[in-house]
Write a structure and sequence with these properties.
about 450 residues, alpha+beta, D-Maltodextrin-Binding Protein, domain 2, 2 domains, 19 helices, globular
């Protein structure tokens, strides 16, 4: 071996000895919403504190994200180390053994600071299986100026009779002002999120304790008939195509007297840069039917979870703990103000006077989340959990099919009775095929 070759080999050996251990790369699947995109831009403190961990992002539209992570985790593909999932997936996937329990988060994480309703929704058998990034319930957002001009008041805990009266009085179709805007676009996470919550507030349930569909019940009929009457008499045209985003735009343009939807919308409708009615918005709890002690509050949390297939469990836990920590919330507030802080997850946020001052909707949001009961969303006995959904794997398909029928009724293509009869038949068939019904 010549002198030059020996020298090169020696240099390579010294370089190898001096090089640090290879960094682990975490592959993180997440949704392309504003809060998650912001988080990707704010990871410098984490990567600086953990130079042995690199982050690789797979950012997807919500429906595509659900499809890909569901396929990957069900087939044990192992593509991802951290998943962004919701309260629908957590109890189902935890039961299947697909998720790693987050039972050993560091003491500084302060699990006890998580809002009880959110923590419970992301737990199974007493163990936390996902850490909440932000959470929401549902509430009434309304135009205080229109209500005053119409001579109606909306109490903090309204009934559906209060809502109907206010919608009637605030409607002025000649001026393109509609008393109420509600979701009509079909989908298990669109119109059925709202209609399931509304039905719960009327005392209805999806299934009895033997898993038999209950769409032929008087409670479901009354809820759907009232929903259709509200929207057809006092709602905007084309409501059967309107989901969250469409109604948000209508409200911000000043065309809705009331909008009943996710609490996360409160920061948007009160933002003077985007909303023409930002200083004229009031808030109230999700309504209940007279005589039914259930406001039908839903609960959703976009959360970070670790698939059991990940080969980088410890690094993944470090990231999940950082991204959903109180320190991260403070980091966002320092960069963009307390208004931008991820809402709905921690007690300490709602005890913070700076957040209370920046977010006039904070108290009502907290009350709505605290009122959600995902373990028993109906006043009747039920065999399932979930608030605005039924936590069974089949619900994505079944819920969307039901939503299509109800959206058709809203569009005037069938009556409420015909829609209910159709879904009673189809859901019974689907549940029998899935062997819930013997």
């Amino acid at each position: 071996m010549n002198t030059t070759l020996r020298g090169l080999m020696g240099a390579c050996a010294l370089t190898a000895l001096a090089a640090p251990a290879l960094a682990e790369t975490l592959t993180i699947a997440t949704v392309n919403n504003g809060d998650m995109v912001r988080m990707q831009k704010m990871t410098a403190p984490f990567t600086e504190a953990n130079p042995d961990i690199q982050l690789e992002w797979v950012t997807l539209e919500e429906n595509i994200l659900r499809e890909r992570v569901t396929t990957d985790i069900a087939t044990k593909g192992g593509q991802y180390d951290v998943l962004t999932i919701g309260t629908y997936e957590v109890p189902i996937w935890a039961k299947q053994g697909w998720l790693t329990p987050l039972s050993d988060l560091p003491a500084a994480y302060d699990v006890e600071d998580l809002l009880p309703a959110v923590r419970q929704a992301l737990s199974a058998d007493g163990q936390l299986f996902a850490a909440p990034f932000y959470a929401e319930s549902a509430m009434v957002m309304y135009r205080t100026d229109l209500a005053e001009a119409a001579g109606v008041s909306i109490p903090e805990n309204p009934t559906w009779a209060d809502i109907k009266l206010a919608a009637e009085k605030m409607t002025d179709k000649d001026k393109e002002i509609y008393g109420i805007c509600l979701r009509g676009k079909p989908g298990w996470g669109e119109n059925m999120a709202f209609l399931t919550a509304m039905a719960n507030s009327y005392g209805a349930r999806w299934f009895d304790t033997d898993w038999k569909p209950q769409f032929d019940s008087p409670e479901w009929k009354e809820a759907l008939v009232d929903y259709l009457a509200l929207m057809q008499n006092y709602g905007p045209p084309g409501a059967s195509s309107n989901g969250f985003n469409e109604n948000l735009s209508l409200f911000q343009q000043g065309k809705c007297g009331m909008w009943i939807d996710a609490t996360v919308a409160a920061s948007f409708v009160t933002d003077p840069t985007d909303s023409t009615v930002a200083d004229q918005v009031g808030f109230a709890q999700f309504p209940n039917k007279e005589g039914v002690e259930n406001h039908g509050n839903w609960l959703w949390a976009w959360s970070l979870a670790i698939p059991a297939t990940s080969q980088k469990q410890e690094a993944a836990k470090k990231f999940v703990a950082w991204a959903t920590s109180k320190d991260y919330t403070a980091q966002v507030a320092a960069a963009e103000g307390w208004r931008a802080a991820p809402p709905g997850t921690r007690v300490s946020l709602y005890e913070n006077p700076e957040y209370q001052a920046a977010a006039p909707f904070a108290a009502m949001t907290l009350a709505a989340i605290d009122a959600a009961n995902t373990q028993k969303s109906s006043v009747q006995d039920i065999p399932y959990t979930g608030g605005q959904f039924v936590a069974i794997p089949e619900f994505q398909g079944i819920g969307t099919a039901v939503g299509q029928q109800f959206s058709a009724a809203l569009a005037g293509r069938m009556t409420a009775e015909a829609a209910l009869a159709a879904v009673q038949t189809s859901v019974t068939r689907d549940m029998t095929r899935a062997r819930y019904i013997k």
